[in-house]
Amino acid sequence: MKLPNFILSAAVSALLGFGGAANAGGIVNVALIGEPDTLDPVISTKTVVTMVTMHIYETLYTFDENWQPQPLLAASPPEILNDGKTYRITLREGVKFHDGSDMDSADVVDSLNRWLALSSRARSFAPLVESVEADGDNVVVINLSGSYSPLVALLAFPSAGPAIFPQEIIGEDSLSATIGTGPYQLSEHEMDQYLILTRFDGYQSPDGAPSHIAGARNQIPDEIRFVPVPDSSTRLEGLLSGQFDYADSISAENYQRLVDSDVVEPVVRKNAFSPFFVFNHKAGLMADFDLRKAVQYALSEEDMLIAAVGSEENYLVAASLFPEGHLWHNKAGIEEYNLADSARAGEYLAAGGYDGTPLRILTSHQYEFHFKMAEVAKVYLEAAGFNVELIVVDWATLGQKRNNPEEWDIFITHSPFLPDPALVGMYSVKSRIGWANEEKEALLAEFSRETDLAARQALFAQIQAMYFHDVPFIKIGNLNELRGQTIGMTGVPQSPWMVFWNAQVPE
């Protein structure tokens, strides 16, 4: 049962004995936007799941501050053979799982095969895989039918990523236990109340200075306590009162309160991510091209951004799928952005034979800026002639509903700017949105095979132009991200995912 916010706050205080910032025992208290609805990192793309499970499970590679893949459970970069169709990966030796067993190639093979079968991130790549094999105890070989240039980045990506498990816990449909190689292990979990991770004493850290989510994982806290707090204002008040040392997703309007506080400080990630209106191509209104174009022409992305975060300092009206300065930035097709043309939208409505069926927009208050954008979108869409229904649910329920194409037409989400477009699942026909376009599929296949950077950039510009024409989803713009932490807290990287293995809070 979901607890009301005021009950949740009181329960959290009593449970964790809050009386100030983290105590001398090395406990870090973190406010999440909601309950992780699974602790299986392979099957979920939700940020709240990834942030928790990254402490428990690890992948073969991870990313440094320049978004370059670095070895994590692998000992070194892969040896690439056979014209890019064979990847030979040597594993680090001496790595242990939380149950005390040693990680070996058999565990990695079974884990990678599970990821290929279940992860939404792997759907486009999986058909290229001919085999994943062990070559002795410490080498894994991935054989492909064709080259796939973003493979190492894909192996490093933690969201719905290729986490490594002991083969004994891998069941046909689910994991039988919560056991990984990570620096922390699951200690206690009360749904909708708290999740406690404790230091894994047998952990073998990778080498190197910490860089983003790569390098040494020093296990500084004894415990990390994650508490789901769905209401943004409650997260803020808990942070200001000392209940929490770190809080995710603070509303931009509260930035000054963090600045003025003598106990906490703002954590701002500039140009951190984009919100998206994601269209359902499998069923319902948005399966029709003309109705998608009607939405595209109706919306004012600029007004949605203003509603989301208020101050111009916190957003950028930006059409391109990647920001200026990013490797994949280009301007193809950007003239079809921020149009707010209700008359032209009405023409597309007529062409699509719109009959007044409600346009169902799925959103949540847990990311309050999602809901604020939905409210503005509703006004513009109704002005163009749509009948709009906002379906407002908690984040976990939204995650379930978006898997059923009969329950929604648009859902709202957000994502950081990823290191390679091949990691963006929404481009694939096999994603939950089902964007089907034969020309786009051919371009994506060529993009994934190509190894020359300039050629890949040119191909992606064509894909972006097709995105603007076909409207599989709408990128609203670029946003800063606001979090909050105890003054003087160190060791939490400026990452899309909050990780705390190197975190230290002043006593």
Describe this structure in words.
With 507 residues, the chain is an alpha+beta fold. The chain has three domains: 1-56 and 182-245 and 489-507, 3-Layer(aba) Sandwich (D-Maltodextrin-Binding Protein, domain 2), CATH 3.40.190.10; 57-171, Dipeptide-binding Protein, domain 1; 270-480, Dipeptide-binding Protein, domain 3. 27% of the residues lie in helices and 20% in strands. The chain is built from 13 helices and 18 strands. The strands form three sheets. Strands 1, 8, 9, 10, 11, 12, 13, 14, 15, 16, 17 and 18 form a twelve-stranded mixed beta sheet that branches. Strands 4-5-7-6 form a four-stranded antiparallel beta sheet, with helices on one face. A two-stranded antiparallel sheet has the order 2-3. A hairpin with a 5-residue loop joins strand 2 and strand 3 (69-71). Helix 9 (342-351) packs across helix 10. It is globular and about 65 Å long. The two termini are 35 Å apart. Residues 1-25 have low confidence and may be disordered.
